[in-house]
Each structure stands twice: as C-alpha cells, then as structure tokens.
Amino acid sequence: MSTEQVIKRVTTKTLALLKRKGIKISVLTAYDFITAKLFDEAGIDVILVGDSLSNVFQGNETTLPVTMDEMIYHTRAVSKGINRAMLVVDMPFMSYQLSIDEGFRNAGRIMKETSAGAVKLEGGLRVAETIKKITDAGIPVMGHIGLTPQSIYQFGSYRERGKDENEAEEILQDAKAVEEAGAYAIVLEKIPAVLAKKITEHLKIPTIGIGAGVHCDGQVLVSPDMLGLNMDFHPRFVRRYANMAEIITNAVKKYTEDVKSSNFPSEEESY
Q: What's the pLDDT tens digit per position in 21-38?
C-alpha cells in the first residue's frame, strides 16, 4: 500500500512527509460544498478557499474586493464537504497588511469561525513578523511569493516575476524568510522554473507551484480554470482537464428545449 493510500487526513505533517518522500502534492481551489466534496473524494491533497473567489465567483477584476466575512462564509461551506484533504484559507487583502496584531487577530478569527487547517498570506520579508506571530500561536501558515495578486497595482501587471537576477535573489530571500518565520509550506507563483527549482532545493518546507514549473513539491490551480469553466482566462500555465463550459451550456440548452416542448417532465417523472 502506498503512502498516499494510508493517509486518512492530510495535515502539515503529511505534506512534510510527502516532500521528504518525493511525492508530489495536489492542490485545487474550491468555494462551495458540492465542489469540495467531489475534489475530496477524488483524492486531492489540499483544498484552498482562495481569494480568487473574488474573480471566478463574484466577477471582480482583482482579488482585492473580497472580505473576511465572505472568506469565512465560503470556508464554512467548503469544510462540510471535506473528509481527507487539508483545508487552507486565503487571508484577504487588508486583513493582515495594517499591522502584525491585526493579521494575528484575523488569522485567529478564521481558525475560530471555520474548520480550516491553515491560513495563507502573500508576501516575503515584509510579512515575516506577521507569519511568526501567527505560527507562534499554533496557527499553521502557508506563504505565497513571486507574483502576489493582492499587490497587482504595485506590480502594474500579472507578468512573470524573478526574470532578472536582482528580483530572483529577492524572491529567494523572501522564501527563506517565510520558512524561517515558521510557515509550513509556500506557494511560488509565476516565476521561472529554474528559480522555483532552486528555492525548492533550498527549503525544507514544501513548495507549491502555479506557473513555476515541474520542480516544485506540488502544484495548485484555480479550479474553474482547469475545469474549463472560465473560458476567458487562458494563461499558458493552466492545463484544461475538461470543457465544463460546453458541457453545462449544452445541458442547459437541452433542458430549455425539453421544457418548452413539454418533453419534460415525462409521466415517469411526474407524481
């Protein structure tokens, strides 16, 4: 029996074990009970209630508008569908940037009001003290460096980060700072594969890549992107595993036709 088969519940300890054994970690976002239940039953390792719900669930252009209350609401729904996967929650914009104590309080609120196993926050050196304060209180933290969407207006675009030598060195130092602050894992977003490989080899904690190449300890995608629900977003790092937009559209068209032609419901479907 493989290591993966004997894991009944994924925890921070589990992810550390998977890294040591060289077993890749699978991560997807979810924002509702049904989706989380399907992902969990399919064997996903980690489910992230991402602040990407601002984009793919609420229709906003950035992740910035989503609130703490909304993140907590969605996390409660997602948690009810999970038996095995680890549940991680994004700390939304301005829930930890104001001060270390504010970040600490909001991380505590997420853990207290949901069934989450960890929180995730963006940034390297600048949030290291916040990460330390949170982890010292026993709350697991997943870091996130490279392209950090909450800082999109500072960056000015969603371009790849770490292409030049100076920025690459800054990202490496950010990764080390996040690990030293006590994070149990770190997301590397949209950085060169060679840099992600270097960071992964330098760190003891697992790295989770998104647009960062195959050498990370695991991979994460936004679920509507990989399921082919979000057809307007197609960066090269997203692989579509289904065309759910077409499947759903065709099903709704057929349902509408059957209703209008009185082909639904049938006698067997009536009381």
A: 999 999 999 999 999 999
Write the DSSP string, 99-128: -HHHHHHHHHHHHHHS--SEEE--BSGGGH
Which residues neighbour 165 within 8 Å (Cβ) at sequence distance 6 or greater?
A: none
pLDDT tens-place string over residues 35-58: 999 999 999 999 999 999 999 999
**Catalytic residue set:** 189
| DSSP β-ladder status, 141-146 and 86-90 | unpaired
According to the model, what pLDDT value does residue 150 have? 84
Contact 24, 217 (CB under 8 A): yes
* End-to-end CA, the chain: 49
Distance between CA atoms of 109 and 55, rounded to whole angstroms?
A: 24
Distances (CA, A) of 43 to 6, 83, 112, 168, 243: 12, 10, 26, 34, 21
What DSSP assignment string belongs to 228-267? T--TT---TTPPPS--HHHHHHHHHHHHHHHHHTT-SS-S
Whole-angstrom Cα Rg for the chain: 20
- Look at residues 146, 157, 243 and name the one whose alpha carbon lies nearest to residue 195: 146
Q: Are 141 and 131 in contact (CB under 8 A)?
A: yes
**203 touches 176 (CB < 8 A):** yes
Residues 6+ apart with CB under 8 A from 167: 161
Q: What's the predicted TM-score (pTM) here?
A: 0.95
CA 265 remoteness from chain centre: 40
Place of tokens 């924002």: 31
